[in-house]
Amino acid sequence: MNPRGTRVLRLDALARVEGEAALHLRVDGGTVAETRLRIYEPPRFFEALLSGRGHTEPPDITSRICGICPVAYQMSACQAIENACGVTVDGPLADLRRLLYCGEWIESHTLHIYLLHAPDFLGLADVVGLARDQRAAVERGLRLKQSGNAILEQLGGRPIHPVNVRIGGFYRTPAPRELRPLAERLRQAREDALETVRWVAAFDFPDAVYDHDLLALRDPGHYAIDSGTPAVIAARGGPRAAREFALSDFEQHVRERQVPHSTALTATLDDRRFLTGPLARYAINGQWLHPVAAEAARDAGLGDPALGAICDNPFRSIVVRAVEVVHAVEEALRIIDGYAQPPRPAVEVPPRRAVGAGATEAPRGLLYHRYALTEDGTLTGARIIPPTAQNQTAIEEDVRRAVQTRLDRDGPDADDEELTLLCERAIRNHDPCISCSAHFLDLTVERT
Amino acid sequence: MSGRVVVIGVGNPLRGDDGAGPAVVEALRGRVPDDTVLTVSDGEPARMLDLWRGADTVVVVEALRTRSGRPGELHTLTPEEVAGHPAGTASTHAFGLAECLALAEALGRLPQKLVVHAVEVADVALGAGLSEAVRSALPELTDRVAARVRQAYEGS
Question: B34: how many CB neighbours lie within 10 A of its CB?
C-alpha cells in the first residue's frame, strides 16, 4: 500500500446495519477526499404509494417502512393527519400512544445495543460471538427487548407492524388490569436496563468529537418522545440555548436535496449539517429524564443532564441509548400506574381539505410526515423525512473524521480491513435504519 | 407465544417475492390443526427466538435467492444446511436465518426439530405481489408445509 497514492474503499453493503446501504471512500495521499454514503431509501416509494389513498390509511401503510420502528411511522402519520383535520388526541389515549412508543424505544434501542453495536466495543464479529463470550449479557438483552415487545403485543395486537393503532386513537383500549402483567415485567426490565447502562459504560471508547448542529423535539417538562416543537442546538462554539421553529415550517428549515451518489436525499438544517437522534435528544431534553435515568447517566460518565450536559463523542451514543431505555421503562411504568381506561377507544377525525404535519422521536431521531387531504380525505400528497436521511451528511462527516484521525496517527499504516471496520463503526454509532430494504450483505473492498 | 408446532412465515409482503413466507402462512389457515401456531416474522433473531420458545417442532417458511436463480424452485433445508448459506444469498432479512440459528445454538435455544421450507425468488423489489414463478409454486410449498405439520402431530 502506498500511503501517497489514491485508494478507494467501497463497501457495497454494511454489516450490522439495518437495511441496505453502501459506502464509498476515497483517500488521496493521507487525506480523506470523499465520503459518500449511498442509501436505498424506501420512504420515497411509500410517498408515491400513498397518493390517492384515504386519510385513515397512512398509519397502517407507513408502518411497513420499518420492521424495527413501525410505531414511529404510525405515530408521526397519525399526528400529521390529525393536525390536518384539526383534531388533538390527549388524555389517556395520548398516554397509551406514548406507552406503545416506549415499547418500541425499549425494543429498538436494545436490539441496536446488544445485537448490532456492542460487538464493536468487545472486538467480536457479531452477536453470535457475543453470545458465546458473554451469554448472560445476551440473555439479558433479549429479556429486556422482549419486555418492549410485550408492550407492543399488548397494545398493538401483535409484535410487529401493530394493527391496533388508528387515527384518533386505537381500535380497542385495554382495561387497567390487562396492563398489570406488563408492569410486573417492566419492573424486572428496569433492573436489566440499569445493568445495561453499567455494562456499556465500561466499554472502551475511541476519542472522537462531532460538531454537528443538533435537532430534536422539545416538550418542556417531558423528555420528548411523541410530541414537541423542533428545537436546535448549534454545534460547539455556537449558542447552546435551544432555538425552536414551528413544525409547519419544518421543510423551510430542513431541506432535502438530490445528490448523484444516492437514491436517498440528503438534508441540511438552515444550510448546516445536523444530527438527530439520541445524542440530540439528550442534549436538548436531558433535564427532563426520569430521576432514575438521570442518575444512571451521571454514573455512566455522561455528565449531569440536569445541567445541560452534552455527549459529544459519537461512540458513546450506545450509553445514551441505554439511558433512554431506562427512561422509557420508567415512563411506561408511570403511564401504567396512572392509567384509567378512556370512555371510547378513539376520537372522530373527520376529513377536511387541509395540509397537516406531524413529527415524533423515532428511536433513531426525528421522523416528520406531511399529508395533503381533499374534503373527502383523499391524500393528494405525502412527504416523509426519516431520521436516517436527515443524518446522512453527519454520518458521512463522522466517517471522514474517524478515517482521517486514523491516517494522521503515527505508527503502522491502516490497511483496508482496518479502515472498513472503522467506517462501519462510525456508521453504526448512529443506528441508521434503512429497513425493509432487502438485506444482502456482501462486502467488497476495492483498491486503485 | 408458544405451542407444540409453530410455523413461521418469514418475509415482507411489500418486497415482492419476499412475501412468500407470509403468503404460505395465510394459505395454511384451516388446513392444519387448530393449536398449530401460525405466525409471520421479519426474521429478526430475537423475535424468532421468542416465537419458537417452548415449541417441539418449528417450520420456517422463507424466500431464498441462489446464484443459479431458478425462481419458484422449492428447497427443504435442515438447520445445518441453512448455516452453510452465508447471509446475503440465502435470506432477504437483516440477519440471515443462518445467523439467527447460530445465535439460537450459542444460547442453547434451538428447537428440537426445525426445518426450513423455502422458495427461490424472482423479484424482491419494492412493491406488493408475488411473481408468477413464485405464485405458481405456492400451492406445492403450502402442501409440503401442511404435510410437515401433520407429520409433527403424528409424532414422527
Answer: 5
